[in-house]
Fold these 2 entries.
Entry 1:
Amino acid sequence: MTKPRKRIVTDPNQLSLFDLLQQERDERLQTTPGRMCCSSRLKVAVLAAIKAAPKSRETIADDMSGLTGQAVTVNNINSWIAESHPHRIPAELVPALCEATGSIEPIRVLAETAGVFTLPGVDALRSEVQKLREEERKISAERRRRELFLREIEG
């Protein structure tokens, strides 16, 4: 005969191992000097976006110029991604680069460095719908608790 298994009861206030590891990582990152420096990751993301784009650099530069109203040239783009140049893409041009190349990776690098996560439009809507469902469940559970309490009070 086998022994009956003990049920494991977890405390909802207890952190999971994953939560503990993530909390420790976050605390370590908060004290790391230069933790917000993302220039090399941004340069890699810009280069990858340009290489993966189905357009030429000339077309990307023209699209960015049209989107921003600023003159963006192929030389500008080349200087942003060249190893030998210390030039970086201006932050106000990153959204136009993302639009022109079809890649959100450069803006994602900036957002994640700031602790914000980006989602494409459809995924963002799905996320909002899920958030609304969770809020509905919480409100429904709270309503049931109050109804039960009301029944107890009324007898």
Entry 2:
Amino acid sequence: METFTVRDLRERTGELIRGAEAGKLSVITKHGTPVFVAVPFDDVLLKEGVAVALAVHLFDEERISLSRAARMAGCSVSEMIDLLGKYGISVIRVTPEELEQELADFG
């Protein structure tokens, strides 16, 4: 998630738009205080609404936990897992190093 100031909106509009097109959330601040969040206009927003889209994007960017995302979206953790799966977002994220260690421990 990138932060833009109100002044940046004039000077870096293209960057804000490219970020949104890439599925990135952005926070716009005025004098250091958040004023609004720019949520990408995508399938999640269209089908699920703003609260769910925000929860999905924040979880996908690893800004909030699964349980926090579920609360934000107004659903259970189980329902949130299903929702994330519907949009191809993995709930369990393992680095290549962690996977290698898991495989070594298993075998």
